[in-house]
């Protein structure tokens, strides 16, 4: 599954000494809100609205 794969690769990163930062749901929600307000609009002229809309839909945003 995707979750098992994520756990496996997260552990591999840790095994190689990479600090893995995990966000709380509140931190993730805040990060997402900032991205939606500041980053996504800046990407529109670069990648186009259709592609950005597709990417946002794929991650469950909107």
From TrEMBL:
InterPro entries with a match to the protein in the record: TRAP_DctP_sf
Protein name in the entry: Uncharacterized protein
